[in-house]
Write a structure and sequence with these properties.
This protein is an alpha/beta fold. It contains eleven helices and 13 strands. Strands 1, 2, 3, 4, 5, 6, 11, 12 and 13 form a nine-stranded mixed β-sheet that branches. Strand 7 and strand 8 form a beta hairpin. Helix 7 packs antiparallel against helix 8, helix 7 runs parallel beside helix 9 and helix 8 packs antiparallel against helix 9. The mean pLDDT is 95.
Length: 338
């Protein structure tokens, strides 16, 4: 097959009922739709078998998380292009066509994403990917249309195709060959930052990633872990640090990690003193501790990534500090950044 849309599901029966019909209506002529189930205990599989017999099903034996769940599912799918699609995404008419056509004529591009808008407010970008993702010099992720907690209204200001550092895992089309050449998603991440890590590795290999706003989808977001969940805070901090260790060039590694040590603890105390979030405070400390504990596991991986770095490859990171631009310079919109 040419295109396989693979929806990773874990206890998402209600999301499947709400959004799978739009996927089938607007996608099945251009792609095969598959649901990979991470050992759900709700009625997800019964619903699929009764209401959507045309959907392929991959049953995984346990909840492997987002990263390894996709690795195990995609290993069972033969296609030229994979589309990783969250179960809480509402797709639109002809959303796939611009993605397929662009990839077909740009072999240097390994992955792309549509414009990601909010289901709750369809005139606003959605936090998880907006109109394409970047990293600043210290590894903080942001998007065209979203800086930290500030999410912009979509007024067409980013309605042009552009190269980005990362594409959102909520809706990403990626060449199967590139996915496996890069080793897939890092299973140890479980969830959060895993797609940024994958895209960063692909950029270091000399591949390109783009956002194509001609294609639009709508995302609920936070379907599995709400934004305020301490586990989400823990995974984001631990995985972001691990991603930096794996991918930063040698000449920047120590400096960036020293800054992050300071800034992470500042963030922890801020959440406790200003926001009174004891759970997030503990999550950040635990993330720092666990990152230090498992760091030896990634030494060989880091060496392989650095050896495989293509000469002249631009990893796409911005050279400024987003914290400085946002909190000191007061720049709250992507278009205001240097």
């Amino acid at each position: 097959m040419k295109v396989a849309i693979v929806i990773l599901n874990w206890n998402g029966e209600e999301m499947l009922k709400r959004y799978l019909p739009t996927v089938m209506e607007y996608s099945r002529r251009a792609a095969t739709v598959i649901v990979a189930d991470n050992a759900s205990t709700d009625g997800s599989l019964d619903f699929l078998r009764k209401s959507h017999q045309e959907v392929g099903i991959i049953e995984l034996e346990k909840n492997w998380g987002f990263a390894e769940g996709y690795n195990k599912a995609l290993a069972q799918v033969e296609a030229e292009y994979y589309v990783l699609l969250n179960s809480d995404v509402e797709v639109t008419h002809h959303w796939l066509t611009p993605l397929i056509e662009y990839m077909d004529v740009h072999p240097e591009v390994c992955a792309c994403q549509p414009k990601l808008l909010s289901v709750r407010d369809k005139d606003s970008f959605e936090y998880a990917g907006a109109s394409g993702g970047y990293l600043d010099r210290l590894g903080y992720p942001f998007c065209r249309g979203r800086l930290f907690e500030t999410v912009e209204q979509d007024n067409g200001q980013y309605d042009y195709a552009t190269e980005v550092l990362w594409a959102t895992g909520a809706c990403m089309m990626i060449r199967a060959k590139d996915y496996w050449d890069a080793g897939g998603l890092d299973a140890r991440f479980f969830a959060h930052n895993e797609e940024i890590d994958l895209c960063w590795r692909l950029r270091l290999m000399g591949r390109k990633i783009v956002c194509l706003p001609e294609s639009e989808v709508y995302h609920v977001g936070g379907g599995t872990l709400p934004k305020s969940n301490p586990m989400k805070t823990y995974l984001n901090f631990r995985n972001n640090l691990t991603m930096l260790y794996k991918n930063l060039p040698e000449e920047e590694l120590k400096g960036v990690m020293r800054w992050r040590w300071l800034l992470d603890y500042v963030a922890a105390w801020q959440t406790l003193i200003l926001n009174r979030k004891w759970g997030d405070f503990k999550a950040i400390y635990k993330a720092r501790r666990d990152f230090k504990r498992w760091l030896p596991e990634f030494k060989e991986v880091r060496e392989q990534i650095q050896k495989g770095r293509k000469a002249g490859a631009d990893d796409g990171r911005k050279r400024y500090s987003l914290l400085w631009q946002y909190y000191v310079r007061g720049r709250k919109h992507f278009s205001e950044l240097p």
